[in-house]
Design goal:
The complex is a heterodimer of chains A (449) and B (316). Chain A has 13 helices and 17 strands. Chain A is an alpha/beta fold. In chain A, a hairpin with a 2-residue loop joins β12 and β13. In chain A, α3 crosses α5, α6 crosses α12 and α8 crosses α9. Chain B is α/β, with parallel strands linked by helices. Chain B folds into three domains: 34 residues, no CATH class; 70 residues, Ubiquitin-like (UB roll); 141 residues, Cell division protein FtsQ/DivIB (Rossmann fold, 3-Layer(aba) Sandwich), CATH 3.40.50. Chain B contains nine helices and twelve strands. In chain B, the strands form two sheets. Chain B has a nine-stranded mixed beta sheet with strand order 6-5-4-7-8-9-10-11-12. In chain B, strands 1-3-2 form a three-stranded mixed beta sheet. In chain B, α7 runs parallel beside α8. The chains are: A alpha/beta (449), B alpha/beta (316).
Chain lengths: 449, 316
């Protein structure tokens, strides 16, 4: 991996540390159907204490409080990518101003923001490298060397790295090491997971944030963020698939041994179901969305044909003799699309070999997972019973924002607190064999005279 | 070409369905809800404490200071403002609630009370806000006959003055012949018109006599019998006292122990009518050697008697 390209990521990290030091941070989940903004109040002292006492970060959340929250309709975003920058900026401004107003008694204005990125056709690569340790004991310099030795994956033209995390570190033949520093061994091996996205939508997103006068403190893949908040820790350790069923797309992230190992995206989401209803039943899409939310489902039951409700055609919304359809009819429209989505997910999982992984649980989250019967259908297609994942509780999170559709926003908050170590958190390998600048100066003095 | 719209009341052109006629779509694209960039920037700038404090505290303070300075620097403005303030103060002070209803003087003789009223010179109806009670008290105490005074307003608006009068114990004959009354501390109360007005008071004179009123009281208190015959006490050389009695008799008292010397004289008087004899001077200045000087005619008679006795003649 080339460390020279990582300067922007390091800058984002330093902004994140600044925000934690100041104790206030905003997270923005920019989705296709809604933009959620949370203003967080952080307690740097408690955060540092939690980091010292508890390496895996189970007791993290006393250090964080949601003091402002706002959920607005997203305009100008399609499939997680920005198509109308002006409208997106407007929505972000509204969400941020309102949540800042709510947070005003507790924190001042926030400048640093972490955003989620749900489009850009994410692709996961893995790359691995092995080096001999210099002294027979693993030093930070060895770790930097092995990171630098990882061959860059073939990410392709116009793609950018979003995450690059060491997922597996082994010394000699011992695997599953979380912190190899100081360990004895001659061979240091690291396997890295590199997540890349299209550069163009990502830079559009960054430009939007810049236009809103905000400092970008990190960009996180949306399925990764929802996995962080919807999966419980044991699931992350033993292996789990978090399927985030959003409005514009359905994406899933795979976790194993506390690490993200894969992210995939399928370009079907809840909006497609709505447009299916609108097109198939000749309705305005607002009406279709409402009917889907109120009466939608995917598993037919015996009572469906007797369950009638208004489903006006286009233009007859206010006429007294509106059309009425049965719930069965609605399910008949919704079901094929959801089924197709799940089949695509299953196909990807089979390609990745995750279906053979024992003990791998499936967690459904995102707004579309609230549709009745979705878990039943997932059971039928995937062969495993999924769980509907609600985000973990954070202090101060409003009840209205704690459903499965807000797991990405909450996941961003947890990411802000305890980001997994990315490659840019490590020092670049240096040609000189010195630990620090003072040591280097002594070495130079010693060798010069 | 413009379409000609018939001028009919809107109610009549509304279609039967009750829906308003659809308005033309606006040419520009419909914007979603949300603040404009300017609003956003302003409100975020407003969220910065430094900017908010500047706008809410510092700028108004500076403006106020500049305005105040401009007004204070302009004589016309300042004069006008002062005049306004004064007139308002006057109006408030002139309200009947603040008027003095009367003056009540307690203690002291009637003459003194009249003096006090004259000294205060307060007409009923004056504003009490303009009176300084402490200054009034000093003015009352400046009267010689007043020892201490308290001045206070009671809630009904009456000025209550309580005085303690000085009591004259001696008269002091000044070197220019004027006669003044002194109290027991030697403080001058006021002039006495005539000696006859105060027959009960002893007269003292001589340099430094007015500072020794206490000694006078002690002397006379020790010998009350002498008082009816006393004409004056004279301070001699700022050291000691001479008592001048009627019939030209003088008692010279020592510097110290004057009271004992006087009581000794009184004892002699009660035993041998010393003071009724024709003696000009009783000199007690040396306690171990008192001396008498007889009047010249008495001395002459004494000489004749002694001569007769010496001649062996009988006393006629």
């Amino acid at each position: 991996m080339n460390f020279a390209q990582l300067t922007p990521y390091r800058n984002m990290r330093s902004r994140l540390h600044l925000a934690i030091k100041r104790g206030r941070l905003a997270v923005l989940d920019i989705g296709s159907s809604k933009i959620t903004c949370l203003v967080l109040k952080l307690d740097p002292a408690r955060l540092a204490e939690a980091g010292r006492n508890d390496h895996l970060g189970t007791s993290l959340f006393g250090a964080i409080e949601v003091v402002g929250a706002r959920n607005v309709q997203s305009r100008g975003v399609r499939r997680g990518e920005i198509v109308d920058m002006d409208e997106v900026c407007r929505s972000i401004r509204m969400a941020l101003l309102n949540s800042e107003k709510m947070a005003a008694p507790k924190v001042g204005r926030v400048d640093q923001v972490i955003v989620s990125f749900s489009g850009g056709n994410p692709q996961s690569f893995s790359t691995t490298a092995e080096v001999e340790t210099e002294t027979g004991q693993v030093t930070e310099r060895d770790i930097s060397n092995v990171m630098g030795a990882c061959p860059p994956p073939p990410i392709g033209e116009a793609r950018r790295i979003l995450h690059a995390q060491p997922v597996e570190i082994s010394v000699d033949d011992q695997t599953g090491i979380t912190d190899p520093r100081g360990m004895t061994g001659h061979k240091l091996t690291v396997a890295m997971h590199v997540l890349t996205v299209d550069a163009r939508p990502l830079s559009n997103l960054m430009e939007c944030i810049r236009q809103c006068d905000l400092d970008l403190a990190g960009v996180v893949a949306a399925p990764y963020a929802s996995g962080l908040s919807a999966l419980v820790e044991d699931e992350q350790r033993t292996g789990a698939v978090c399927i985030d069923m959003g409005g514009g797309s359905t994406s899933f992230s795979v976790f194993l041994r506390d690490q993200l190992i894969c992210v995939e995206q399928i370009r079907y989401g809840g909006d497609h179901v709505t447009s299916d209803i609108a097109a198939g039943l000749l309705m305005r899409s607002a009406v279709a969305e409402r009917i889907k939310t109120l009466y939608g489902g995917v598993i037919p039951t015996g009572a469906d044909d007797r369950d009638l409700f208004d489903a006006p055609r286009i233009g007859e919304e206010e006429s007294p003799n509106r059309r009425q359809i049965s719930r069965g009819m609605l399910i008949g429209v919704i079901r094929p699309r959801v089924e197709e989505t799940f089949r695509l997910v299953r196909q990807r999982l089979v390609e990745l070999g995750i279906t053979e992984m024992p003990g791998c649980s499936i967690v459904l989250t995102g707004a579309a997972s609230q549709m009745p019967g979705v878990d039943e259908m997932a059971t039928r297609i995937m062969g495993r019973r999924p769980r509907i994942g609600r985000p973990i509780r954070i202090a101060g999170l409003p009840q209205s924002l704690s459903g499965p559709d807000f797991s990405t926003a909450v996941g961003l908050a947890t990411y802000a607190l305890r980001p997994h170590e990315e490659i840019w958190d490590f020092a670049a390998p240096r040609p000189l064999s010195a630990r620090g600048q003072v040591a280097e100066m002594f070495r130079w003095l010693k060798t010069s005279w | 070409m413009r379409e000609i719209v018939p001028q009919i009341a809107p109610d009549e052109v509304r279609p039967a369905s009750g829906r308003k006629p659809r308005s033309e779509p606006r040419p520009e694209a419909r914007k979603g809800p949300g603040p404009s960039k300017l609003t956003y920037r302003l409100s975020r700038a407003w969220a910065k404490p430094i900017i908010r404090n500047a706008a809410l505290v510092y700028l108004p303070l500076i403006a106020l200071a500049i305005a105040g300075w401009r007004v204070a620097a302009d004589d016309g403005w300042r004069g006008m403002i002062e005049a306004r303030i004064l007139s308002v103060v006057e109006q408030i002070a002139a309200r009947p609630e603040f008027a003095v209803r009367g003056v009540a003087v307690f203690g002291g003789s009637d003459a003194l009370q009249a003096d006090v009223r004259r000294a205060l010179d307060i007409q009923p109806g004056m504003s009490s806000l303009k009176l300084d009670v402490e200054e009034l008290r000093l003015r009352v105490e400046a009267l010689g006959a007043v020892e201490t005074a308290t001045v206070q307003f009671d809630p009904q608006g009456t000025l209550r003055i309580t005085v303690v009068e000085r009591i004259a114990v001696v008269l002091f004959r000044r070197t220019d012949g004027g006669l003044v009354m002194l109290d027991k501390n030697g403080v001058e109360i006021g002039p006495a018109e005539r000696r006859a007005d105060h027959p009960e008071l002893p007269v003292i004179r001589g340099p430094g006599a007015q500072d020794r009123v206490g000694e006078v009281i002690a002397l006379l208190g020790g010998a009350p019998g002498i008082v009816p015959r006393l004409r004056a006490l004279i301070r001699v050389g700022e050291r000691r006292w001479n008592l001048e009695l009627d019939r030209g008799m003088t008692i010279k008292l020592p510097e110290t122990g004057g009271v004992e010397a006087l009581s000794r004289i009184m004892a002699l008087h009660y035993g041998e009518e010393l003071l009724d004899r024709d003696i000009e001077v009783i000199d007690m200045r040396l306690p171990e050697r008192p001396a008498l000087r007889m009047k010249p005619e008495a001395a002459e008679t004494y000489q004749i008697r002694r001569a007769v006795a010496a001649l062996g003649g009988e006393d006629t």
